[in-house]
Design a protein that fits this description.
Length: 150
Amino acid sequence: MKFIKYLFVSLFLAAGMNANAQATYTAADGTEYQFKKHAFLNLEGGAQYTLGEAKFGDLISPNVQLGLGYQFNPWFAARLQANGWQSKGGFNTDINTVYKYKYVAPGLDFMFNLSNLFCGWNPKRVFNLTAFLGGGANFGFDNDEAVALY
């Protein structure tokens, strides 16, 4: 087991050294690009659907997300984000019962740009394949409507 752990760490570090060595790109016209570490911000908005027994349209609610990340090298970045607003739940017995509550869901992602890791950094690449590894939590509050049902 220890051998596998050391092998994985060694391969991970070797891949990192290889990717850092490819942090310069020369275009066909001779222009040279140098990778620069940078921070990034993502803002998202949309709608979400909560699984439940109530009517489909009654369980759609708004959602926003704010994320802040940092690109450490061409193939690795980390992002801290939080999303939330309100959500709806419901069930259908004799009548359609729906309730609302607020929530926030913070999370942390480690992002691995597989295109840059295996094919070298290219600032003109149109498509990048990125793998995400992370986790989060979900905290609900202001759920008086749900509590009143029981």
